[in-house]
Amino acid sequence: MALGRHRRDFLAHLPRRPDVLRRRRALRTGRGLPHRTEPAQRPPLRAPGPAPARDRRPPPAHGAGASRVALLLPAPARCVRRTRRRLGRRPPAQGQRGRARPARQRGDGRHPGRSQRAVKPAARAAELRRILEKANHAYYVLAKPDMSDAEYDKLFRELQDLEAKNPGLQTPDSPTLRVGGEPASGFRKHRHLVPMLSLANAFTEAELGEWEERNARLVPEVKTAGYTLEVKIDGAAVSLTYEDGVLATGVTRGNGVEGEDVTPNLRTVLDLPLRLRGKGWPKKMEVRGEVYLPKSQFAETNKQREKAGEAPYANPRNAAAGALRQLDSKKTRARGLRVFTFQVEGPGIKLGIDSQHELLEALQAWGLPVEPNHTLAKDLAEAHEKIRKLEALLPTLDYGADGVAVKVDKRALWAELGTIGNREPRWSVARKFAPEVQVTKLLEIRINVGRTGALNPYAVLEPVEIGGVTVSNATLHNAELIAAKDIREGDWVEVTRAGEVIPQILGPVNEKRTGAEKPYKMPAKCPSCGSEVEHPHDEVMTYCPNISCPSRILESIVHFAGRSAMDIRGLGYERVRALLDARLIDDVADLYELTPVKLLTLEGFAEKSAQQLVDAIADSRQQPLSALLFALGIRHVGEQGAKLLARHFGTMKTLAKASADEVGEVRGIGPAIADAVAGFFAEPRNRKLIERLEKLGLTLRETATATGPRPLADQTFVVTGTLPTLSRQQAKDLIEGAGGHVSDSLSKKTTALVVGADPGSKLDKAKSLGVEQIDEAQLLRRANPKS
Known about the structure:
Elements: H1 2-12, H2 18-29, H3 53-56, H4 68-72, H5 75-88, H6 103-106, H7 121-141, H8 149-165, E1 189-191, E2 201-202, H9 205-218, E3 227-233, E4 236-243, E5 246-252, E6 258-260, H10 263-266, E7 284-292, H11 295-307, H12 316-324, H13 329-335, E8 338-345, H14 356-365, E9 375-377, H15 380-393, E10 401-408, H16 412-417, E11 419-420, E12 424-425, E13 428-431, E14 438-449, E15 455-466, E16 469-475, H17 479-485, E17 488-489, E18 492-498, E19 502-508, E20 518-519, H18 550-561, H19 573-581, H20 596-599, H21 607-619, H22 625-631, H23 639-649, H24 652-657, H25 660-664, H26 671-682, H27 684-695, E21 716-720, H28 728-737, E22 741-742, E23 752-755, H29 761-769, E24 772-774, H30 776-783
C-alpha cells in the first residue's frame, strides 16, 4: 500500500503531457503498455525471484552521473522509476508504430507510403522536389531511370496536393511548374547579360584552315591550343539565367542583344534542370543552349497540327521555335522539347575552368544536358579527321544537326582573339557540310492555284527521307524553270532541301532515262475552275483570272487566317475547305459571322473546339492595319510592304483614297505595288468587303510603334540570299528595330540591298538601278553604330 501511495504521489507531480498520461494509465491498469508482444496484462513491478544485480547496487554518488530526482525520491518511487525504465521509458516517436516494419513501408525518402505526420509540409515539399528532380535527371539526362512511372506519378501528385493546400510552398524550381501554367497574353522583351553571338561558317576543310591562319596571325598559340569539336544542334537558341543555382529566366535569341522571355515554356523542357546539381557554379550566370524537337517526335507533332486544321511544320527546327513561342505553356509541354547546353556567360564571372572541354564536363556535373558526341582534337589535322567521322554520324542522330562547332579549346585565348563586330567570335567557327541529296522518282507534275490566281507547278515524288524529314513534294516554281532544267514526268531526279527547309529538285538523272519520260506543258485552262489562263508578257507566271475560282478563294481565306496576317489559330486548309463546302462562308468577312451553333453542324467540331475557333476569330479583330492589309492578299503587297503602307497612311480610309502616284511616293514602295494597291481599292467588290469588315469590328487603324534609337530611320532595305549568321526574319527584325523598313521588291528608292549567298536576280536588278549592295557585317554596323 505504501508503494502505491508513493507511486501516486510521484506521478501526480509529473507534467500532464499526453504520453505521460498514457503511461500513468498503463502503470495503473496494466493495459496499453508499449513495446510488448505478450498479451496485455498488468505486469508485476518486479520480476519473480531475486532482483537483478543492477537493482541491488546503490545509486552512484552525486556528481558521478546520479540523477538529482532519483536521490530526492523515496525508495518506492525509485522502484517505479526503474520499472518505467524497464518497460520502455520513451514512447514511440510520433508517426511510428511500436513493432518493426519493412524499410519500404517505413519510407526511405523516396516512397509515399512513409507516414508524414511528424514532417512539416515545407520539409516534405523540399524532400519531394529533390527526389523528383533526381528522377528527372536520371530519366532524361542519364537515360538510366531509377524510379517507375507509377511511383513518380504518385510522388508528383503528393507534391501537387501539398502546394495546392499551401501555395507559399511552390518554389521556382518545383517540378510541378513543368506541367505549364495559365496562358500568357504575350512575351516581354529581355536583354541578355552578354550578347548572343552567331558563328561564321566554313564549308570546306580549306576554309577551316584559312580561319585558323587568320587567328594565328593574331595569337600564334592557337595552332597548339587544341580544338573542341561539338555537334551543332539545329534548333532554337536560348539563354538560361541561373541565380543561386535556380533557373530564373529563359530567353530566346532574338536579335542577339535582346530576346523574348519564355521562362514558363522552358520550365516544361523535362531534361532542363530547374535547380543545378553539384557545386562550383557561379552565383549568377547565363547558360547558352539549343532547344530542339527530336526527329521521332516531329512526325507526331505534324500529325496533330493537321488534325487541328493547322499547317504542318517544315522541319523540326521550326517546330521547336514555334513551341517555344506558344502562349500556353501546357501546349509547349505537349511537344516534348529537349535541350543541349554548351556555354556559360556573364559579366565578370570567374569559372576557374581553363578549357572548353572542361566546361562541358562541368555543365554535365551541374545536371545540364550536353550533346554526348563532343570530342577534343590536338590540332587542325586531327580536327579534320574527327569532323569527317562526325559528319558520317549526323544522319543517325535523333535530332537535327547542321554542322560541327569548332572552338579553340584554351579559353584564356578567347579574350585575345575577341569578336568581329560584336556579332561573331573569332575563337569559334561552324564547319558546315554540303546539303544532303537523294535520288527519287518524279511521278507527275501538278498545279496549285494560289490566292492571286498564279498557277504554281509542283512535283509529286516517291517519298524519300532527307535530313530526317520525309519528302514527297517539291516546288518547281514556273514553266521556264522546268524547261531550263529539262525536268520531265517519270524522271529520276536529285532532290535536296534548300536551306535545309524547302524541298527542291536539282535536276534529272539523265543516265536513268528510258525514253518513256514526258516533257511538261502548262495547262491552257485553270485546273480548278476551267477558266482560260493568262500569261502576262512581262512575267514568268501563268494566272487564272477568275476571282471566284474555288482554289483562289480557299487560298485567300487560308492566307487571311495565317500567322503573319490575322493570326487565327486553328483555321487551316481542312477547316476552311469544310466551311466552304458547307456554304457557311463565301469570303473572309463571313468568318466573323460564324457561331458555335453553326460550326457544330460540321463533322469534327465539338462544343469546346467550336467555341475556341469562334474566340480565335473574335480575337483577330484587334490585329493592326498592317496585318489586315497583308491578309487581304493585294497583289505584290507582302508583309513588309503592308507595314510601310500602314505606317505612312495610318488608316484604311486614307489609303483607300490615295492615288497610285501618292502610294508610289512612300519610301520602299515601287510602281508595281502602287498600281496594284490603287487598282485593289478601285474595285467595287473590294470596297464593299472593307465596309463589311469595318462594320464587323475590325481594326482599320495602325497601332503606334515604340520609340528608341533609330539609326536606320527612313531607310529601306531589301534582303536577298542566305546571310552568314542571321535568318531572313532576324535580319528584318534587326532593321525594323533600328527604325528602318524592309521591302520585298527593289526600286530606285531602296537604300541598300543586303546580299547573302546565292542572291538571285535581285543583285542584277540592284546594279542596274544603281542601288548600293552591302553584306551582313555592314548591315550590323549600320544598325548598331556604337558597337
